């Protein structure tokens, strides 16, 4: 007898996108030690935490040093002060009907976007945008929900792919086959595309009619600049009965290393008589360790007047980089999109190059590292992602190099 593993993990194809990139970059650097590389590839932020957040962290650390103000285990679903701050600032201030007890504090949107599928039966068919953040599909693979992988098409037999192509401004169309669980991520990683409020409303109406649930990833909400782009799915009518929303403090406030997020599950969201709210509360109480008190206090500071002003500047800094990339590439004759409501610029690879051919081309000729679009789904082939998270100086230099040599 031998213990058995979850062999769904063995179905995951190939090596992880970013490890392949890492290997290629290391090989290049070894062979060309005199050529400094600029990374416009990885989706991690680079600016330090804002002063208001640092102050809040320091204060919370000091509280831990005294018996009277020490905090042990955090409440299962998060501290009330943070749940209320999120409900009030991110929802009620926008006219959305979300209460503090519908906000579940998490250690990030990645974790919850992976974990949320646990409260659904394996007997559900998922639909995903193509291309998109790979975690949605990969976690469903690990759970055994995705069927058989076809290496030629790079698709799973039991996943509905919704191509997001130039013809539709990189927005998905309503699928012909009805899914049970629909993952939407807007502003989108990697394309930087968005849906208008009326476009998103169509998805809500569709899901409510079909009895499907939407898992809406709002990780890049802070980057929205256009009026008609919703900041949350609950700006749409009827979303309370069909949508879960994932939020992150990573890209709006620099918490990629600190770790903090929130998942919104309205109490109206039911399968038969069972609320998803009650299932997720149970899951949180059993399997979630909680974001630390210190981190939740830091999250609260994101909503202080000082914090808001400082973070607005930080987002503007990255969005200025996005503009440098977008306009620079356009001047250089590239076909580009994104970059207006998102820190991602999506470009069509020139001269019919594949995504990976263009990766090598850019690395060798401009010493700039980006991310091949094919890593985000089959419809990403022929595209390439650049990110606005670098320093301004590096971003300008990278674009100059691409203009000169790329
Ligand atoms: N969701 C999307 C769409 C992302 O692109 C990312 C990170 O790149 C995340 C979630 C991860 O968020 P977090 O850092 O809160 O786990």
UniProtKB/TrEMBL annotation:
Highest taxon listed in the record's lineage: Bacteria
GO molecular function, one term: L,L-diaminopimelate aminotransferase activity
Residue stretches making up the Aminotransferase class I/classII large domain: 36-402
UniProt keyword annotations, A-Z: Aminotransferase, Pyridoxal phosphate, Transferase
UniProt cofactor(s): pyridoxal 5'-phosphate
EC number(s) on file: 2.6.1.83
UniProt cross-references to Pfam families, sorted A to Z: Aminotran_1_2
InterPro entries documented for this protein: Aminotransferase_I/II_large (IPR004839), DapL/ALD1 (IPR019942), PyrdxlP-dep_Trfase (IPR015424), PyrdxlP-dep_Trfase_major (IPR015421), PyrdxlP-dep_Trfase_small (IPR015422)
Keyword Metal-binding: no
The UniProt record lists the keyword Transferase: yes
Residues that bind substrate: 16, 43, 110, 133, 189, 289, 385
Residues with the N6-(pyridoxal phosphate)lysine modification: 251
UniProt binding sites for pyridoxal 5'-phosphate: 73, 109-110, 133, 189, 220, 248-250, 259, 289
Annotated catalysed reactions: (2S,6S)-2,6-diaminopimelate + 2-oxoglutarate = (S)-2,3,4,5-tetrahydrodipicolinate + L-glutamate + H2O + H(+)
Biological process according to GO: lysine biosynthetic process via diaminopimelate, diaminopimelate-aminotransferase pathway
Subunit structure: Homodimer.
HAMAP family, alphabetized: DapL_aminotrans_1
Known role: Involved in the synthesis of meso-diaminopimelate (m-DAP or DL-DAP), required for both lysine and peptidoglycan biosynthesis. Catalyzes the direct conversion of tetrahydrodipicolinate to LL-diaminopimelate.
Family: Belongs to the class-I pyridoxal-phosphate-dependent aminotransferase family. LL-diaminopimelate aminotransferase subfamily.
Protein name: LL-diaminopimelate aminotransferase
Gene name of this polypeptide: dapL
């Amino acid at each position: 007898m031998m213990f058995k593993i979850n062999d769904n993990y063995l179905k995951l194809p190939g090596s992880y996108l970013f490890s392949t990139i890492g290997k290629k970059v290391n090989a290049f650097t070894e062979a060309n030690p005199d050529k400094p590389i600029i990374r416009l590839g990885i989706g991690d932020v680079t600016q330090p935490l804002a002063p208001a957040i640092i102050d809040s962290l320091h204060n919370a650390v000091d509280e831990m040093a005294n018996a009277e103000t020490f905090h042990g285990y955090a409440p299962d679903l998060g501290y009330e002060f943070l749940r209320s701050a999120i409900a009030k600032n991110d929802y009620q201030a926008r006219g959305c009907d979300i209460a503090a007890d519908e906000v579940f504090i998490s250690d990030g949107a990645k974790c919850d976007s992976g974990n949320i599928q646990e409260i659904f039966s394996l007997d559900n068919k998922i639909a995903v945008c193509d291309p998109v953040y790979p975690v949605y599909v990969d976690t469903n693979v690990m759970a055994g929900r995705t069927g058989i992988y076809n290496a030629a098409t790079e698709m799973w037999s039991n996943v509905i792919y919704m191509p997001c192509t130039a013809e539709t401004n990189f927005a998905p169309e309503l699928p012909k086959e009805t899914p049970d669980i629909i993952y939407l991520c807007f502003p989108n990683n990697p394309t930087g595309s968005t849906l208008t409020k009326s476009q998103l409303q169509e998805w809500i109406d569709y899901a409510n009619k079909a009895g499907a649930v939407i898992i809406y990833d709002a990780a890049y909400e802070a980057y929205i600049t256009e009026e008609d782009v919703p900041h949350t799915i609950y700006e749409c009518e009827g979303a309370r009965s069909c949508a879960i929303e994932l939020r992150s403090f990573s890209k709006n406030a620099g918490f990629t290393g600190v770790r903090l997020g929130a998942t919104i599950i309205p109490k109206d969201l039911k399968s038969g008589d069972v609320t998803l709210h009650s299932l997720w509360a149970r899951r949180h109480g059993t399997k979630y360790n909680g974001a630390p008190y210190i981190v939740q206090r830091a999250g609260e500071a994101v909503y202080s007047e000082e914090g808001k002003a400082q973070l607005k500047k930080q987002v503007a800094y990255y969005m200025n980089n996005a503009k440098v990339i977008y306009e620079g590439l356009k001047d250089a004759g590239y076909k580009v999109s994104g970059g207006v409501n998102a820190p991602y610029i999506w470009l069509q690879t020139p001269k019919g190059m594949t995504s990976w051919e263009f990766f090598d081309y850019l690395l060798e000729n401009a010493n700039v590292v980006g991310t091949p679009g094919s890593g985000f789904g089959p419809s990403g082939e022929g595209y390439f992602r650049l990110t606005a998270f670098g320093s301004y100086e590096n971003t300008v230099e990278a674009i100059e190099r691409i203009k000169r040599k790329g």
